[in-house]
Amino acid sequence: MAMEKISALDGFTLWIGDADYGGTVTGITLPGLPRRIEGRRTGGRRGVLGVKLGLEEAKATIKTKGVSQSLIDAVSSGKIDGTRLFARGNLDDQQGGYTSVVYELQGRCTNPDKISEEWTDDDVEGELEFWLVYWRKDVAGERKLEVDLLNDTIYPDEANDARRANLGR
Predict the structure, then answer these.
(1) What residues make up the domain containing 105?
(2) Which of 85, 94, 136, 158 stands 20 to 30 A from 73 (CA)?
(3) How many domains is the chain partitioned into structurally?
């Protein structure tokens, strides 16, 4: 399963709700989706999508520098688990412009013991790891990707779009 690595970030900061936890996000790695299930809504009561992906495969990492002490406290105490964490900022479009992007992640932090006071320094990079149950990517205010393992849904539903296109021929 291919991972989506995002590293051309500019001015990204971490948020929980309306609270800005500061720092600079220098990279995000999201789980990739196998081609065979991308764009599908699967059925069943047991969460077929989650079983196929597995929580261990739905691992994400956030590399960050200069986070606030309150984020360190939230991660260390486990308060961050299950809450929605946002990385907001601008993505360099490689053509001299920037596009606003929001990443929304929800899951459990797997390395709270590795976070340290040194991460508040702007020169020290730390890495938070999460096992995700939900993630979403919005570009310029438009939803580009949404995966919800608990409710067994993936957006965009490219399979339905292809079916509609075939019916129109």
Answers:
(1) 4-167
(2) 136
(3) 1
- Amino acid in the structure at residue 152: D
118 to 128, 140, 162: CA distances (angstroms): 14, 33, 50
Give the number of other CB atoms < 10 A from CB of residue 41.
Answer: 15
> pLDDT tens-digit profile of 49-93?
555 555 556 888 888 888 888 888 888 888 888 888 898 888 777
Given a cut of 60, is residue 119 above it in pLDDT? yes
We report the CATH number of the domain holding residue 20 as 2.30.110
Q: How far is C-alpha 6 from the geometric centre of its chain's CA atoms? A: 10
Q: What are phi and psi of 28, to 5 degrees?
A: -135, 135
Q: Considering Cα of 143, then 134, then 120, then 7, what sign does the dihedral take?
A: negative
Instruction: Print burial letters for 101-134: b (CB count within 10 Å at least 16), e (below 16).
Output: bbbbbbbebbebeebeeebbeeeeebebbbbbbb
Beta strand spans in the chain (E): 4-6, 9-16, 19-20, 22-30, 59-67, 84-92, 98-109, 126-139, 142-148, 153-155
